[in-house]
Design brief:
Helix content of chain B: 55-70%
Shape of chain A: globular
Distance between the termini of chain A: 12 Å
Largest sheet of chain B: 2 strands, antiparallel
CATH architecture of the largest domain in chain A: Orthogonal Bundle
Structural class of chain B: mainly alpha
Order of helices and strands of chain B: HEEHHHHHHHHHHHH
CATH topology of the largest domain in chain A: MetI-like fold
Strand order of the largest sheet of chain B: 1-2
Largest interface: A-B, 131 and 134 residues
Distance between the termini of chain B: 17 Å
Structural class of chain A: mainly alpha
Number of strands of chain A: 0
Radius of gyration of chain A: 25 Å
Order of helices and strands of chain A: HHHHHHHHHHHHHH
Strand content of chain A: under 5%
Radius of gyration of chain B: 25 Å
Largest sheet of chain A: none
Number of domains of chain A: 2
Oligomer: heterodimer
Shape of chain B: globular
Number of strands of chain B: 2
CATH superfamily of the largest domain in chain A: MetI-like
Chain lengths: 307, 328
C-alpha cells in the first residue's frame, strides 16, 4: 500500500510553473525556433481534428435539406438555423423538448442525489472506524470493476418484476449508484477534511451528523462537484440503459430520441436535419458546462491518476 | 492497488502532507463515545449500500440464477414456458456459439488497432503540451478534451454522417485530391470505428497523462536539461518511465471499455456496413440473445462471462503494472 501524496497545490498550477530553459548552450536559436514551430504545429493539427466534427455540426445545422446534400460540408448554404430549430421544437408536438427535459431530470437530479450519497459514504469510510470497514470498501471497489453494460439485462428483468420498467425510476435508480464516486469521495475526504477541525467541532458539542452537514460537506464541495460532473456525464451519455429500459417515447432521454430518428434517416432523408439540429442543441449545454467547470473535472481526473 | 494521487488545490492553509493511507487511518477521535459515532457511520453509508445491493449485487445474483436455467416452451407455445434447470448448458452453448466467439475475435482485432493508436497519440500530445515549447497550453487542453463532453451516441452519429457519401466534407476533400475511400468497406470499417473511439477518448487520456506529468519533479527534468538532454530525450527517458503507472491504468480502462463496445457497432450496423452484423461485439450478442431471441439463460451466461473477462483483465493489467513499476 503506498501512501497518498498530495502535490503542493498552488505551486503546481500549470500557469505558475517556471519554464525550463529552452535554450541550452549547444542549441542555435534557429533549431530552437524550428522545434517550437513543430511542437505547436502538431498541437494545432490535433486541435483541428478534434474540433472539425463539432464545427461541421454547427454549419450543417444552418442548412436546409437541399443544401445539406448539395453544398460542400464546410460551405455555407442559405441560413436556415431558425427554421431548423422551429421544426425541431415543434415536430411531433414538441417531443424533442420533452426528451431534453427528461435528460435533464435523469442527469442533473440523478447526479446530484448520487453525488450526495457518494460524499456521505466516502466521508464515513474515511472518518469512522467500524467492523468490516475495509471489506465493505473492497466490495465498493469490486463494483467499480463490474462493467455496467453487463448487468443491464438482469437489471431489466428485475425491473420488470418490480414493475419499474418503462418508468422514470428505471433510469434514475441505477444512476444513484456510483462506486467510483465513493472511492473518489474517500480520497477527497482524506485530502480536504482535516481531523483536527472535526475534533474542534466535537469539543464545541456538535453531534456527528451536524458536524458532517455543517463542516464536512462544505469542505467537500469541490469533491462533490467533481463527482457530480462525472455522474452527470455518465447520465447524459447513458444510451444503452435507456434503450433497454424504456419503450414509451415520452420517457426517452435526448440520446434515445435521436437514435430513433437516426434509424429512419435512410428511408426518410428529411429526418437528417432533425437529427443534426437536435444533436447540436443537445451538445451545446454540455460543452458550455465543461468549459465553465474545467477546474472540477481536472481535479477529478488527477485524483484518478495513480502514482 | 496503489492509492491515487490527489493533486487538487485544497482550501488555503490546509495541510497537504502525505496523508495516511486507508490501512493506517488513525481513528479521528478515540475519546468520543463510540455509540454515536457508530450510528452516524451507519446512517451515512446505509443508503448507498441499500441501493448498491439493489442495482449491482441483486442483478449479478439474478444473472447467476438465470444462467443456470432454460426456458422450455410447453406444447404449442400457448401454455407459457417452464423453467428447466440446465446446469452449465447455457455457458457451453455460449462458448460453442460461433457468433459469440467471433465477437471476441472482432474486439481483439479492434483493440490491436485501437489501443496503440489511442495511447500513442494521447501520450504524444500530453508530452507536447507538457514540453516547455508549447504555447497556449490551456487552450490546447480544452480543445483536445472537448470531444469527451459529447455523448458517444451523438459523436457516433456525427462521425457516421461524416462517413456518408453526399453529406461528408471529408469524402469531398478526398475526392478533390483525386482519391476515393469507402468508410464502410469491409477492410476499412474497423479503421472507421477506431477513429470514432479515438476521437472521443484521446483528449481525455491526454489530460490524465498531462496531470501525471505535472507530478514529475521539475528538478529532475532541469537536471536532465543541464546534462544536455534534448526535449525528445527528456520525454522518452525521464517523463514516460515516470508516468508508467498512469499509462497502465489507462490501458486497463480502455480494455474494459472496449469489451463493452455497443453504440458504435450498433450504429454502423444500422448504416448497413456489410461486415458489422447484429452480433458483432459481445454486448451486441447479449442484446440480441436477450431482447430479440428472448433466450435469457444464454444472455445471462454470456453477460457473466463478459463481466468475468473484464475483472480478469483488471487483475492482469494491475499485476503487470506493479511488476513493471518494480522493475523501473
Amino acid at each position: 500500500m503506498t501512501t497518498l501524496t498530495h502535490g503542493t497545490s498552488a505551486a503546481r498550477q500549470p500557469t505558475a510553473r517556471h519554464r525550463t530553459p529552452t535554450r541550452t548552450g549547444r542549441r542555435t536559436p534557429t533549431s530552437a525556433l524550428l522545434s517550437k514551430t513543430v511542437v505547436n504545429g502538431l498541437l494545432v493539427l490535433a486541435a483541428c481534428y478534434t474540433l472539425m466534427p463539432v464545427s461541421w455540426l454547427l454549419i450543417a445545422a444552418t442548412k436546409n435539406h437541399r443544401d445539406l446534400f448539395a453544398t460542400s460540408g464546410f460551405a455555407l448554404g442559405d441560413m436556415n438555423l431558425l427554421t431548423n430549430l422551429r421544426h425541431l421544437f415543434t415536430f411531433d408536438d414538441g417531443i424533442y423538448l420533452r426528451w431534453f427535459a427528461n435528460s435533464i431530470l435523469y442527469s442533473v437530479v440523478g447526479s446530484a442525489a448520487c453525488s450526495l450519497l457518494c460524499v456521505a459514504t466516502g466521508y464515513a469510510f474515511d472518518k469512522y472506524d467500524f467492523k468490516g470497514k475495509e471489506k465493505l470498501f473492497g466490495l465498493v471497489l469490486g463494483g467499480v470493476l463490474v462493467p455496467s453494460t453487463v448487468i443491464q439485462l438482469p437489471m431489466y428483468l428485475l425491473a420488470t418484476k418490480a414493475g419499474v420498467v418503462n418508468t422514470y425510476w428505471a433510469l434514475l435508480l441505477p444512476a444513484l449508484v456510483n462506486p467510483f464516486g465513493v472511492y473518489l469521495a474517500r480520497v477527497f475526504s482524506e485530502g480536504y477534511v482535516p481531523n483536527e477541525v472535526l475534533e474542534a467541532a466535537h469539543v464545541d458539542g456538535a453531534g456527528e451528523l451536524r458536524t458532517f452537514a455543517r463542516i464536512g460537506l462544505p469542505m467537500l464541495a469541490p469533491g462533490f462537484m467533481t463527482i457530480f460532473l462525472f455522474s452527470f456525464t455518465a447520465g447524459w451519455n447513458n444510451f444503452f440503459g435507456a434503450l433497454v429500459m424504456l419503450n414509451d417515447d415520452h420517457l426517452y432521454p435526448v440520446n434515445l430520441g435521436l437514435f430513433m430518428w437516426n434509424s429512419v434517416t435512410q428511408q426518410q432523408p428529411e429526418y437528417y436535419a432533425l437529427v443534426i439540429t437536435g444533436s447540436l442543441v443537445a451538445v451545446l449545454p454540455l460543452i458550455a458546462a465543461f468549459v465553465c467547470l474545467q477546474r472540477f473535472w481536472r481535479s477529478g481526473l488527477t485524483a484518478g491518476a495513480v502514482k | 492497488m496503489a492509492a491515487p494521487l490527489a493533486r487538487t488545490a485544497g482550501p488555503p492553509g490546509a495541510q497537504h502532507g502525505p496523508a495516511a493511507g486507508p490501512q493506517s487511518a488513525e481513528p479521528a477521535a478515540a475519546v468520543r463515545p463510540s455509540r454515536g459515532r457508530r450510528r452516524a457511520a451507519a446512517l451515512l453509508i446505509t443508503p448507498f449500500f441499500v441501493l448498491f445491493g439493489a442495482v449491482m449485487v441483486a442483478p449479478i445474483g439474478y444473472a447467476l440464477w438465470m444462467s443456470l436455467f432454460r426456458e422450455r416452451s410447453s406444447g404449442l407455445g400457448f401454455g407459457g414456458t417452464r423453467r428447466v434447470f440446465a446446469g452449465l448448458a447455457n455457458y457451453s452453448a455460449a462458448l460453442s456459439d460461433a457468433g459469440f466467439r467471433a465477437s471476441f475475435a472482432h474486439i481483439a482485432l479492434y483493440c490491436a488497432l485501437y489501443i496503440p493508436a489511442l495511447i500513442g497519440s494521447s501520450l504524444a500530445l500530453a508530452l507536447l503540451v507538457d514540453s516547455a515549447l508549447a504555447r497556449a497550453k490551456r487552450f490546447f487542453q480544452l480543445a483536445l478534451f472537448l470531444p469527451h463532453a459529447i455523448p458517444s451516441l451523438i459523436a457516433s452519429i456525427v462521425w457516421i454522417y461524416l462517413y456518408t457519401p453526399g453529406l461528408s466534407p471529408v469524402l469531398d476533400w478526398i475526392q478533390s485530391a483525386g482519391g476515393s475511400w469507402d468508410f464502410y468497406a469491409n477492410d476499412h470499417v474497423l479503421l472507421s470505428m477506431t477513429n470514432l473511439s479515438a476521437w472521443q477518448w484521446t483528449g481525455y487520456n491526454m489530460v490524465i497523462f498531462y496531470a501525471a506529468l505535472q507530478a514529475v519533479p521539475r528538478e529532475v527534468i532541469e537536471a536532465a536539461v543541464m546534462d544536455g538532454a534534448g526535449h525528445l530525450r527528456t520525454a522518452l527517458r525521464i517523463k514516460i518511465p515516470m508516468i508508467a503507472s498512469a499509462i497502465v491504468m489507462t490501458v486497463l480502462f480502455t480494455c474494459v471499455g472496449a469489451i463493452q463496445l455497443f453504440t458504435e457497432p450498433k450504429l454502423l450496423n444500422q448504416r448497413g456496413a456489410p461486415s458489422i452484423d447484429t452480433a458483432w461485439s459481445p454486448t451486441l450478442f447479449i442484446w440480441k440473445a436477450g431482447f430479440v431471441q428472448h433466450d435469457y439463460g444464454l444472455a445471462a451466461a454470456a453477460s457473466l462471462m463478459l463481466a468475468a473477462l473484464g475483472i480478469a483483465l483488471s487483475f492482469v493489467v494491475t499485476r503487470l503494472g506493479n511488476r513493471w513499476k518494480a522493475a523501473a
